[in-house]
Amino acid sequence: MITTSENKLTAKDFVPDQDVKWCPGCGDYSILKQVQTIFPDLGIPRENFVFISGIGCSSRFTYYMETYGMHSIHGRAGIIASGVKSANPNLSVWVVSGDGDSTAIGGNHFIHLMRRNLDLNYLMFNNQIYSLTKGQYSPTSEKGKITKSTPFGTIEAPFNPAELALGANASFVSRTLDRDPKHMQAILKKANQHKGTSFVEVYQNCPIFNDGAFFAYSDKETKKEEAIYVENGQPLIYGENNNKGIKLNGLTPEIVDLTTTGVSANDLWIHNEQDKTKANLLARMFDAVVPDVHFPRPFGVLFAEERPVYEEMMQSQIENAKAKKGEPNLDSILSGDKTWTIN
Amino acid sequence: MDTAQEQVAGNKVNFIDTENVVIRFSGDSGDGMQLTGTQFSDTSAFFGNDICTFPDYPSEIRAPAGTIAGVSGFQIQFGSKEINTPGDSYDVLVAMNAAALKVELKNIKKGGVIIANTAGFDKKSLRLAQYSDDADPLKDGSLSDYKVLEIDITKHTKESLSGTNLGNKEVERAKNMFILGLIYWMFDRPTEHTEAFIKEKFGKKPDIAEGNILALQAGWNYGENTEIFTSRYRVASAELAKGNYRSITGNHAAAIALIAASKKAGIPLFLGSYPITPATDILHDLSKYKASGVKTFQAEDEIGGICSSIGASYTGHLAATTTSGPGLSLKIEALGLATILEIPLVVINVQRGGPSTGLPTKTEQADLLQAMYCRHGEAPLPVIAAASPSDCFDTVFEAARIALEHMTPIICLTDGYIANGSEPWRYPTEAALPMIKVHFASKDEWKEGPYLPYKRDEKLSRPWAIPGTPGLEHRIGGLERKHETGHPSHDPENHEFMVKLRQQKIDKIADYIPEQKVNFGKESGKLAVLTWGSTYGTVRNSLIEMSKEGKEVSHIHLRYLNPFPKNLEAVLRKFDKILIPEMNNGQLSVLIRSKYLIPTISLNKIKGVPFSADEIKAKVNELLNN
Ligand SMILES: Cc1ncc(C[n+]2csc(CCOP(=O)(O)OP(=O)(O)O)c2C)c(N)n1
Ligand code: SF4
Ligand SMILES: [Mg+2]
What we know:
By secondary structure, chain A is of the alpha/beta class.
């Protein structure tokens, strides 16, 4: 059995002897595969990985990883993981959660996790539906969606998870999709490298209850027009033969045709992961960030900033107090400052 | 007051010896009554009295000055005999304003002393206290049953500080020290203890320290030099057991019990909590112990409080969450998770008046059945309860021991009355505290086959393998576990087996706790009073006093509410009648009746205040006579 970083782990070492029980064709399989594929490369001893998941099809993930793990309760994975990481900062903590788990019942924990910035990785499998409970709309379902609980269509405006995470002061916000294994692997590695809470939204197909929700971003015929892959330091270019770009006019994005307008790559919006204002614009390229203009959906790392992480600040307050006062012995805590003796 | 008078030679003032005294300091929230009361308590404890205190705050932080809603009280009973309660009615009331008098009047003993600050009885104050237009209780003769001493405390404080540079506000603030000095004189107590406290507190502001000390001394001298007092009182020191003492509140005792348990278990402490009255002070207190390595996490809500603790427990910490009734309700789903995970977790519920926001600053014992039964599915948990402020230490320490040694979440009940109240505590040394046995599984112990996270030991508890342990990687979760392997399992036979096994595991804790004893009185007889939680003190007091009148009634007090001590039924059956007084609608009665089919008799009080000795005695007498 391989357990330490000295011996090279393989993907197989992360496969437990349990049957995987997702439906055939479920996007969750791809995510599991990519995680198992990159884990041996992270240089982390297997016993230091911990998966914490909530409840949902997605949250079964924990049972399929040969690591430490807890399949917990609906919506609470992030806050349980916060306890794990605060208590033992040496662990590599991974949260797996669904769109409902994260943004409905667990919405409060989600936003507070983002602002606290513990150094952990948060994978949100967004299938825009409650799958485990057989197909009700979720907070990420598009307006008007017909589901079992909305036979006449939803009347709610959806959350855009990336925008929500940014608004909650997340230090790393990214988006990838089940049908692009290479991209997902790259994003997972970046998430692992980032020190802080790394939010990874994974568009995940549920063939049973919301089939094809994201096919526009992966189907050959449409993906070039509908998806834009952003890379730090690179201009925003997409389209058939990379013929389109996005330019910023002040803070208003504009789509330009690179073949006809004479605009060059240098004039385009150059992606800068650390620019929060622009990251907000990117995240909002979701609905009509500009009325009546249809923008492609961005994938990649939308935002990343280095800032102190919670568990280290917690630890350093402890270290500072110890350095200043010395660790008190238990007897002095029991007696307090004021005592008297009865003889 | 049980008194004996003595004329001190050459002094017009009588010294009256008395066994016990109840003083109530009462004033506006801003009048500093809590500090005054605490100082008087500390000095009396230091002097060797047994004491019991009860701070009684308004639920508004700063209700409009002078109003009834803004009255803040601090009560202390001190004596030369065993004191178990802050007392039912007052021998001395300090009323800083008319509202305070209005609120407290019903609880002053006939013949008791009222010290009224006349500056707080002007037209405006009387109106704010809702006295009718021309009524002035100091003038209208309505206080003829009491000894009323009218003193313009505000004016005297001002005069005593006229030589200082203090501004009006600071002078005004020092009036609580004037009254404290006067009360010290009245009870023949030195001012040194408080002077040392003032110097330390205002170390960086010597002006203010000096002003406060001047006011304190002026109060003392006022007693000495004016002739309005005809008597002073002496309360001899109590015959407490030999040893080292400190004063402690229930919440502080709970906080340091967690620290002690973590040291004795050899693992770090983590508290996940969300502020709620009256439990918040445990969070405040533990947050100060950074140098002891304590990790405190103020979560976004109650659910976050318990869930962060579940995470910390999973990694091998002693994990706790603290709350009050409504907060416990929010934690229930996660408590179900902790139950099926079978991980250690201490849940401290400082009860208050409910349901909902109820009486948030008042006390009640109405969460017993919530602690016992409020769960989804069959999810038994151990439940224990503290009897007094200092007993919060032993009970919380014991809760941590049970959680860790039996791998289970546990609910520990205290209430607002003992959480905020204080008493002298003969504190233990580290060496005297028992070790708590914690064992983390390692690969060496599991060489032969796969790790079985749900294999049982003789206590029926499971092994604890924490993340970071090579070779024991495994998954746990909220789905039903297969016996021993811990894999998710929907097998009906296994589910029933596991439900029963979890029940047996909790029942088995009874093999590891002390047998029930009769706390006071004979082991059999006509009547026993059965208590749990904070009713302990009043009942004990009442029965001790009744025994002096020749009435034999036994007292049985329960710390362990689930499981009950193994011999409890046998102990109870030795009595013809069992009376259970509770600050709820009869919840322990429900448990005892359903478990043993013993027809208990309930005495219930649900008014946000503890029982008085008279109420207990009246019921006991009624039962003795029938
Ligand atoms: C307290 C509680 N309420 C409701 C449920 C039922 N429930 C389980 S999963 C789920 C929604 C899951 O949706 P999502 O998080 O998007 O996960 P998916 O199944 O789509 O992966 C719901 C409502 C539950 N398990 N617990
Ligand atoms: S219901 Fe949908 S999300 Fe759930 S396992 Fe099946 S395909 Fe996957
Ligand atoms: Mg979903």
